[in-house]
Amino acid sequence: MLYGDTIPIDSKEEIMDRIYCKIADRYDITVEITTFGLNKLLKRRFVRLMSPIAGLKMLDVAGGTGQIARNYLAYQDTVNNDTSSSVHVVDLNEQMLRVGKHRFASTQWARDGRISFAQGSAENLVDIADNSFDIYSISAGMHNIPHMELALSEVYRVLKPGGLFACLDYDRVETPIAKQINRWHIKTFAPAIGQLLVGDRPSYERLVRSVMSFPHQRDFVKAISQAGFILPPGKGYKSMLCDNMVAFYGTKPE
Ligand SMILES: C[S@@+](CC[C@H](N)C(=O)[O-])C[C@H]1O[C@@H](n2cnc3c(N)ncnc32)[C@H](O)[C@@H]1O
Predict the structure, then answer these.
(1) Which residues lie across from 246 on neighbouring strands?
(2) What is the pLDDT of residue 2?
(3) How many helices (H) and strands (E) does the chain have?
(4) Is the pTM of this model over 0.85?
(5) Of 151, 199, 206, 251, whose CB is crowded by the most CB atoms within 10 A?
(6) Checking DSSP bridges between strand 115-119 and strand 245-251, what pairing results, if any?
(7) pLDDT at res. 13
(8) Side-chain-facing half-sphere of 169: CA atoms under 13 Å
């Protein structure tokens, strides 16, 4: 079966946390290799499609080593000539956060207090106030979360009215040839790279099962809408990276 495999829901958060502890130090390099270097372009595009104006506060959940945060701040600096926008990264895993903090430590963003990190679960953002962020982003994170409906209700709670929800995750490819390539990529190539770089094939096989638990894009669009968000015109999602990834955007009503 290509899709639909799941990790037991009650132990999923703990299992995912253990896996990310193991792979944190090699996460960035592994992502570059498994996406054949396209990861940077993909994440840049994901941020560009948010069309952020200057001065916005972003909450990047499941933000890991801060790849989206870096892209967002770079976009604000270069496109909007803005030095007041900021990102707060929240992630379940302390090792991913450690790597992220280290990567930002020597940047002007860190010196200016425009980037911060905190440990927490997407299902219960206890330290985040209601209506407090302009953008909530989550990249390659939603598929890890056992109860996505809880995470979506937290997105709604913490965003300001008019705020943007942006989610990047794995697409369900539908054409037979794309399915074959996808099957090879996620079942053979990614675990082989995991074995090579981290010496841990089983962790990558688990990650793949987690990726496969992400719903079909049409169902996730429905879930976003049911959570109360206004969807953009059209089908409500944008396929990227030869239909391997999909970006969702929704707005909290004013
Ligand atoms: C594939 S990484 C993505 C990291 C980053 N967003 C990116 O695009 O590079 C998934 C991240 O989700 C985090 N994560 C898993 N379950 C989570 C949860 N329930 N709440 C918050 N973060 C979670 C992991 O610790 C990991 O850092």
Answers:
(1) 169, 239
(2) 40
(3) 11, 7
(4) yes
(5) 151
(6) unpaired
(7) 82
(8) 28
Residue 174 Cα, ligand 1 centroid: separation in angstroms? Answer: 26
Mean residue pLDDT across the chain: 91
* Chain segment 24-68, per-residue pLDDT in tens: 999 999 889 888 889 999 999 999 999 999 999 999 999 999 999
Assess whether the C-beta atom of 89 lies below 6 angstroms from ligand 1.
no
Q: What is the mean pLDDT of residues 127-150?
A: 95
Any atom of ligand 1 within 6 Å of the Cβ of 86: no
Ligand 1: atom nearest CA of 121 is 20
- Please give the DSSP secondary-structure letter assigned to residue 25: G
For Cα atoms 239, 211, 228, give the angle at the middle one, nearest 5 degrees.
Answer: 60
Cβ of 140 less than 6 Å from ligand 1: yes
Fold classification of 10-172+216-251 is Rossmann fold (3.40.50)
CB 249 within 8 A of CB 166: yes
Determine if ligand 1 sits within 6 Å of the CB of residue 154: no
With 90 as the cut, is the pLDDT of residue 178 above it?
A: no
Atom of ligand 1 nearest to the CA of 28: 9
Q: Determine contact, residues 50/135, Cβ cutoff 8 Å.
A: yes
Average of per-residue pLDDT across 145-154: 95
The Cα–Cα gap between 128 and 241 comes to: 32
**pLDDT tens string 92-102:** 999 999 999 99
